[in-house]
Each structure stands twice: as structure tokens, then as C-alpha cells.
Write a structure and sequence with these properties.
With 789 residues, the chain is mostly helical. The chain contains 29 helices and seven strands.
Length: 789
């Protein structure tokens, strides 16, 4: 049977952990009473005759009211808080001696009252927040339903004119005197990530009938006005449709749409009717985006309401269990008295959350699932894939295959002397080895990411919420290990075959196409359109890479800059990829001229540019975040990546011209960049080195129990950050090719990044927990504006 403590900690909402009942502290206080009681019982083993008679009479209901006897033990007072927050505060008064250690009993009830007051206050604040969201969403739904009804009416009427065959829209009747409001631009302050998640998850677009004819809304109480941030009136309120336009395609389409609408409205304004009315259209595409936003907001609201239900149930169980333990230790009947107070308290007696949850279900089933409850529950309560034992079996199988093939490859490479210095087989090291090292670094990084997921789950870090991953594109650590072992088995097998053919006497010209085909197969699998090989995760990866490459044009979310940080540790892999692409695209593999890509200035400069690209992308993300959020810390972070680019530039220049001057500059720039990076790692990314922390030079809250792990991690990060010293020292292993040494140092940087990842997400999780953020705030499309606006 699982202990309640483990059950409680396993089911609570991680971001709200501090708001739950501190069950462990209550157990500690109860343990003090228990220890003192045991010591007293040892001294007084014999019970007096009078005490025995009294206890016997007390058990008989004929000689007194048992409930009256209990009520005299404690009395719980309920009063308003002095802060004027209209919240009840509970305070327990001991009417008789409960335990031998009265001070310990008082301390227990003070802590118990504080926990009850904390739970009530938090529940009330979250309930208020979700009720406000629900009220706002209800208004948004009403507006959306009206507009959808307009499209349905449009299809029913079957109207069609040549004026609007180019676009599906609805026309609204407005006054010509109010046309000046239409030219105002929309504020771009909504989050792109929420809408993109909905689109990437494959949610269906609005199921309203397609038609090319605008319709007129002649209702007096529904006067609509504009699109793309212009004001329209609905239900007696001035509103705006706000769709996130923070990616290039939406921005450009919005600009062209505004120009088109202005031309149409200017031409139609000259044709105002006798009543001064004019037609203005609202695009069906914008309405479809608005529906997706409301759908996502309902999903997040429902998730938050379920979290609050879990919060109430777990806290109720915690109070019940700790009171049972108290009665068992002291021999008193406190449970019925105090539990009655807990049951009548606000967090347990309020039913507003349950009512709102039922309403959200009804809205979703009726308007987004076509009255299909099962379909609605797939969105509102997505089920995570069950972990299969077959996955574990194949991980073991592929691991064994990889180890055997790698051992065979190492033996053949040793016998042929492929990795020795001044070997005659330089051609192999220049052509096939970059493919092997590239895949090695890539899948080492992937393996470490699987280890990160395993550790995050053990530490109850909600990485899927931080990265905003849906249930369909969230990879479990077993999935990551399966992908990693299967891929590395295939790579080791192909490279073993390639090297064996060379050892048997086949020429490089005959077998050189094999590494290129291996790379091509992996690229085809990445973009494979069928729903196999984790399609949703593959396409999400492609989307993130696109966001990184065009980082100044896209709004930056956590997953984007986290992935960009990973690329900063994969510069050797990117340089190998650029060289291999040049080698096969230019046809050098056919002429066996492996030095072509290094001789031609264009390709040589491109290889150097690849070294700067990850830092450039990350710097542009910092610039974009500063532009969106206005926080100067992003500019300071940008300076870190600029210093890294300058250090990389001096290294490139030193490789061309090995002089004392360039060497001094490399040491100076790399030292500055390293100090900058270490400060940001420890203070900003990991949140450590806090002077007034309860844990010396760490932070107040730690997910790992052993503090020494954090000190060791800081030292390890410092040592691995100093890998650039190899550029100055030119250290290498005896009788081993310099490319193998370079791969070893690159692998150390990948290991450092995998180690860095855990503490980065730990700090992010603690920041979310500090602000009790457990659900996303989805932007809503319809915004009310004042008459002055």
C-alpha cells in the first residue's frame, strides 16, 4: 500500500506546491507530541483506579453526552481577517489538556490553523481568477456565435455577387460618419505561441459553410465594424478583433489585407445609401483564427479548473489523515470537531468551480465538438500514451546492436590504422569521418536530452508546460532513448559496412556514396509526411528550427531560445554538416577532391560564417525579446552572445595567422566571454550565487536534496567552459589524429550543455511555482475599446 505522503506529493500540482497543505511539517509537529508521550508513558506505566473508572464512565452514553464531552476539548473560532480581505481566519483554542506536552499541542494547532487559512485564501484567489476568465470567455463566445450565425445565414440566403468572389467574408452596415475610426492600426501585444500551438496540434478550422458572398447584418442591436484591429460594435460595445501577427507570413498578409480593405471601403464609401449606411467586411479567415484562440482559451481554463478540483480534494484528504494520526497519538477525539470546520470552510464548501467546469464542458461540446462529448473530452482531457514494454525491449535490443557494431567498427579501424597520425588513409578522415562525428555529436545530445527528461520527471519539473508541448508532440524519455539507440545502431552498422568494404580492397570511388546516402535518408525521415516515426514531434522540431533561423521575425518563446542554446553547443556539428553538404553537392565525392571546399574562398568563408550563426540567432532572439518586453536584461544577455562571436572571430583569425598578437587577443577575448558566460550561467540561468540565501551561495529553494551536487555542478561547468584553452595549448593525444581530439572536446561541450539543461529548467520551474503559474494565459480575439480609442 502506497503511503499517503508519497501519494500526496505525486498528485499535487507542482507549480502550486507551496500553496498545498504542508503535510510534512504537520507530521514533524505531531512527531514531537508522539515522542514526548512515549517518554511519559514509560515513567507512568500503572494507571490509577480512579482514572480507569472515569474513562469507563466516559465511554457509556448513559452517563453523559459524548459529543458534549468532545466539544470541550477544543473550540475553533472563525473571524474575519484584519487585512479587510473578507476572508475567514480560523483559530483553535485548547479547552483542556490534550497531550502531555501542551506547548507542542498548541504549536501543532497553530500550524494546522495556518495551513487551513492558507488553503482557503489561495483557493479563493484562484477561484476568482478562473471565474473572471470564464466570464470573459462567455462574452467572447457570444460574439463568436453571432458572427458564425451570420455566416450560416449567408449560406441559407444563397446570396452571390461579383463584388466579393475573391474573399469569404461578412458585410456589416455602419455609418459613413464613423469611417475615420477605421484607419487606426492595431497594437501587436498578443502572444504568438498560443495560436501557433493550436495550429501545430492540427486542430480543425471553423466548420462554417464556405461561400463567396458577403451578407448584410441589418439588426439594430448588432452593428459590426472592421477587421485587423479596427473597431466594430456588437451587443452595444465597441470591440476589436485582435489576431496575433507576430510572424512574417501573418504580418505581410495583414498589411496586404489592410490595403485591400482600405481600397474597397474607400470606393464603397462614395456609394452610401440614403440612410448613410456603408458595408464593411469581416474576413472568414480572421474569424476562424478567433475561434481557434477561444478554443485554446477554453482548454486552458478547463485544465485550470481541474487543477483547482485536485487542489481541494488533496487538501481535504491531507487534513483528514493528519487529524486521524493526531487522534491515534493523543487518544483524543479531535477529528470530528476539526473536520467539521474544514468541511464548512470556503475551499470545500464553494461549488462555483464545479459549476463553471460543467459550463465549459457544455460550451465546448456544443460549439467546438458538434455535440460529440467523446471528441470534446479528447481536447479537454487528453490522455497520455501508455508506456509500452515493447519500447523497453527495443531499447535494449538496439543498445546491444549498437555496442556490437561499434566494437566491430573500432576493431576494423584499429587494424587498418584509420585514426593514426600521418596515416595514408587521410582521405577517409576528410570525407567519411565528418559524417560519423556529426551523427555522434547529434545523438549524444539527444541521449542527454532523454536523461534530462528522466531527471525532470523525477524532480517533478513540469517541462511540457514550460516548453508548451501538447500531449501529441511530447516525447517521453523512453521514446527519446528508442530514437537514439535505433539511429545510432543504423549509423554504426552503415559505417562498419563502409569501413569493411574499404578494408577488403574496394576503392573510395566505389563506396564513397554510402555516407552521403546515410545523411540523405535521415533528412527524408525528418520531413516524411506520413504519420509514423513521431510525425508531430518531427514537424514541431522543423517549426522551431524555422523560428530560430528567422528569429528576428518571430516572437520568441521558451522552446525557441532553449533550442537555440543547444545549437550554440553544436558548432562543430554544424561545420561538419556544411562541409559534407559542400562535398556532395559540388560533386567532389566523384572526383575525390576533398580539398575543394577548403580551397574555394566562397565555401571557406561560408564555413567560418557557420561558426557565428548560432550565436547570431541567439543574439537576435534577445533583441526581439527586448523589443517585445522592454526588459534591459535581454540586452545584457545579447552582449553575452556578441562577446562569444568576437571570441570565435579571433580564434578564426588566429588559425589563419598564428602570431603572438593574435594569440594574446584570443586569450583576452575568450577570457572575457568565459567570465560573462559563467556569470550568466550561475546567476541568471540557474538562479544561484544568492548572497542572502538560506543555502549558502545557492538559492532558497532547491529541487535536489544534496547541496553538494550544486557546488560540484558549478565547478564542472567552470572546467568545461575552459575547453577553448585547447586552441592555445594545441594539446592532442599521442598517435591519434587531431580530428579525434576535436571530436572529444566537442563531446565535452555537448555534455556540459546537457548538464546545464537540468538546472536551467529547474530555475524556470521554480519561477513559475513562485508565481503559481500552472496554466497558460491564452490571448482572446475580441477586445473592448473606449469611445476615445
Amino acid at each position: 500500500m502506497v503511503k499517503f505522503t508519497k501519494q500526496f506529493e505525486g498528485q499535487l500540482v507542482p507549480e502550486w506546491k507551496d500553496a498545498f497543505v504542508d503535510y510534512s511539517q504537520l507530521k514533524k509537529d505531531l512527531k514531537k507530541i508522539h515522542l514526548f508521550t512515549n517518554r511519559v508513558e514509560k515513567k507512568h506505566k500503572e494507571t490509577s483506579l480512579i482514572g480507569t473508572i472515569k474513562s469507563s464512565f466516559g465511554k457509556l452514553s448513559l452517563f453523559g453526552n459524548k459529543q458534549w464531552e468532545r466539544s470541550r476539548v477544543i473550540q475553533v473560532h472563525r473571524k474575519l481577517a484584519s487585512s479587510g480581505s473578507n476572508s475567514d481566519v480560523y483559530e483553535t483554542e485548547l479547552l483542556e489538556k490534550i497531550a502531555d506536552d501542551t506547548d507542542a499541542a498548541k504549536e501543532f494547532f497553530v500550524c494546522l490553523d495556518a495551513q487551513l487559512n492558507k488553503v482557503n485564501q489561495f483557493y479563493k484567489s484562484k477561484e476568482k481568477e478562473f471565474l473572471e476568465r470564464g466570464e470573459c470567455l462567455k462574452k467572447q463566445m457570444e460574439i463568436l456565435i453571432e458572427l458564425k450565425d451570420a455566416f450560416n445565414q449567408k449560406q441559407a440566403n444563397g446570396e452571390s455577387t461579383q463584388e466579393s468572389k475573391e474573399d469569404d467574408s461578412i458585410s456589416c452596415t455602419i455609418s459613413c460618419e464613423e469611417d475615420s475610426i477605421r484607419g487606426r492600426t492595431e497594437e501587436m501585444q498578443l502572444q504568438e505561441s498560443c495560436l501557433e500551438d493550436l495550429e501545430n496540434n492540427g486542430e480543425e478550422a471553423m466548420e462554417s459553410p464556405g461561400s463567396e458572398e458577403p451578407i448584410k447584418l441589418n439588426s439594430e442591436d448588432t452593428k459590426l465594424r472592421t477587421v485587423s484591429g479596427r473597431v466594430f460594435s456588437c451587443q452595444g460595445k465597441n470591440l476589436k478583433i485582435k489576431i496575433p501577427l507576430t510572424n512574417p507570413s501573418r504580418t505581410f498578409s495583414a498589411i496586404s489585407y489592410l490595403i485591400k480593405e482600405d481600397l474597397i471601403n474607400q470606393s464603397s464609401s462614395k456609394k452610401c445609401g440614403p440612410d448613410g449606411a456603408n458595408k464593411l467586411r469581416i474576413s472568414k479567415k480572421k474569424l476562424s483564427h478567433a475561434e481557434k484562440m477561444i478554443k485554446g482559451a477554453l482548454t486552458e481554463l478547463y485544465k485550470g479548473l481541474n487543477y483547482l478540483k485536485t487542489y481541494r480534494n488533496l487538501n481535504m484528504l491531507a487534513f483528514m489523515n493528519i487529524l486521524k494520526k493526531f487522534d491515534k497519538v493523543t487518544g483524543k477525539q479531535i477529528l470530528p470537531i476539526y473536520l467539521k470546520v474544514v468541511e464548512s470552510s470556503y475551499f470545500n464548501s464553494s461549488d462555483k468551480v464545479i459549476i463553471l467546469s460543467d459550463e465549459v464542458e457544455e460550451w465546448f461540446i456544443k460549439h467546438f465538438a458538434g455535440e460529440n462529448r467523446r471528441k470534446a473530452m479528447k481536447y479537454l482531457k487528453p490522455h497520455h500514451r501508455k508506456e509500452s514494454h515493447s519500447v523497453t525491449f527495443f531499447i535494449g535490443l538496439f543498445t546491444g546492436c549498437f555496442v556490437a557494431l561499434l566494437a566491430g567498427y573500432i576493431i576494423v579501424a584499429h587494424l587498418t590504422g584509420m585514426y593514426r597520425k600521418h596515416s595514408e588513409n587521410t582521405f577517409y578522415m576528410e570525407t567519411a569521418y565528418p559524417v560519423l562525428s556529426m551523427f555522434g555529436l547529434l545523438f549524444l545530445h539527444l541521449f542527454l536530452y532523454g536523461c534530462n527528461i528522466f531527471m525532470w520527471r523525477k524532480a517533478r519539473i513540469n517541462y511540457s508546460f514550460i516548453f508548451e508541448l501538447g500531449s501529441e508532440n511530447e516525447l517521453k524519455y523512453r521514446d527519446v532513448f528508442l530514437i537514439c539507440t535505433a539511429s545510432m545502431s543504423a549509423i554504426a552498422g552503415v559505417m562498419f559496412l563502409h569501413l569493411s568494404l574499404l578494408a577488403k580492397g574496394y576503392s573510395f570511388r566505389q563506396v564513397q556514396v554510402i555516407p552521403g546516402l546515410l545523411l540523405l535518408v535521415f533528412l527524408l525521415i525528418l520531413i516524411f509526411p506520413l504519420n509514423i516515426f513521431y510525425k508531430s514531434s518531427r514537424y514541431r522540431l522543423i517549426t522551431v528550427i524555422r523560428n530560430i533561423v528567422f528569429s528576428p521575425l518571430y516572437k520568441v518563446v521558451m522552446l525557441d531560445f532553449f533550442m537555440a542554446d543547444q545549437l550554440c553547443s553544436q558548432v562543430p556539428m554544424l561545420r561538419n554538416l556544411e562541409y559534407i553538404a559542400c562535398y556532395y553537392i559540388t560533386g567532389s565525392y566523384a572526383t575525390q577532391d576533398y580539398g575543394y571546399c577548403m580551397r574555394v574562398k566562397y565555401y571557406r568563408d561560408l564555413a567560418y560564417a557557420v561558426s557565428f550563426l548560432p550565436y547570431y540567432w541567439r543574439a537576435m532572439q534577445c533583441a526581439r525579446r527586448w523589443f517585445d518586453e522592454g526588459e534591459t536584461s535581454h540586452l545584457v544577455n545579447l552582449g553575452k552572445y556578441v562577446s562569444a562571436m568576437l571570441a570565435a572571430g579571433t580564434k578564426v583569425a588566429y588559425e589563419k595567422e598564428r602570431s603572438i598578437g593574435w594569440l594574446c587577443l584570443v586569450v583576452a577575448m575568450s577570457s572575457v566571454a568565459t567570465i560573462y558566460q559563467l556569470y550568466w550561467d550561475f546567476v541568471k540561468d540557474w538562479g544561484l550565487l544568492q548572497q542572502n540565501s538560506n543555502n549558502p551561495w545557492l538559492r532558497n529553494q532547491l529541487m535536489l536534496r544534496q547541496k553538494s551536487i550544486y557546488y560540484f555542478s558549478m565547478v564542472l561547468n567552470l572546467v568545461l567552459r575552459l575547453a577553448w584553452l585547447q586552441t592555445v595549448l594545441h594539446s592532442s593525444f599521442e598517435h591519434v589524429d587531431y580530428r579525434v581530439t576535436g571530436l572529444f572536446l566537442a563531446a565535452l561541450e555537448v555534455i556540459r550543455r546537457g548538464h546545464w539543461n537540468f538546472y536551467r529548467l529547474e530555475n524556470e520551474h521554480l519561477n513559475n511555482a513562485g508565481k503559481f503559474r500552472a496554466v497558460k494565459t491564452v490571448p482572446l480575439p475580441f477586445r473592448e475599446v473606449d469611445e476615445e480609442d
